[in-house]
Design a protein that fits this description.
176 residues, mainly alpha, Leucine-rich Repeat Variant, 2 domains, elongated
Length: 176
């Protein structure tokens, strides 16, 4: 049995740890000829009841460059916490590597009723913008967008700033 066949079988198996391991390892044994089948298997694993399987499947889709990756990463944002770097998760780390393409998927989460979800979305937004504009550019833009704070108890102020970020992201997506 090839490594690819072994990991695909494990992804369909009954052992949750083996499924998570398979979802993590599959992109590494994928060839251009098998990429579509592996991506479909990973996309199917997004419905797994085990958060680690879902999280690694979403990250695997990103590793393969699959179009389903960004929505999957947003859906699995809290599935694999990075306990040493709260509020980060596997998905926040992968989303940050996706760059500005991730922003239209992440910025709507700034309006989440879940404070931790807002913090994660904000961390991704901040990392991406700082990566492209530097610290000074981030600071100026953050102020211009209302000084969004994911922990702000004033929902109206927080949501207004989130709206400014959404408008900014939409403006960035428009062709010049």
């Amino acid at each position: 049995m090839t490594p690819l066949a072994r990991w695909l079988a494990a992804l369909r198996g009954s052992d949750a740890a083996a499924r998570a391991d398979a979802a993590q390892r599959l992109p590494g044994v994928t060839t251009p000829q098998t990429a579509a089948a592996v991506a479909d298997a990973l996309a199917h694993a997004l419905a797994d009841p085990e958060p680690a399987v879902r999280g690694h499947a979403a990250a695997g889709l990103a590793a393969l460059g699959d179009a389903r990756a960004l929505p999957a990463l947003v859906r699995t944002l809290g599935d694999v916490p990075d306990i040493l770097h709260v509020p980060h998760t596997l998905a926040t780390h992968v989303l940050m590597r996706q760059g500005e393409a991730a922003l239209p998927h992440v910025v709507p989460l700034l309006l989440s009723s879940d404070a931790l979800q807002r913090q994660r979305a904000y961390a991704v937004l901040q990392a991406i913008v700082m990566g492209t504009r530097g610290s000074a550019g981030w600071q100026a833009l953050w102020l211009a967008q209302g000084g969004y704070n994911p922990r702000d108890a004033d929902t109206a102020r927080r949501d207004a700033a989130a709206g400014l970020w959404a408008a900014w992201v939409a403006q960035q997506a428009r062709p010049p």
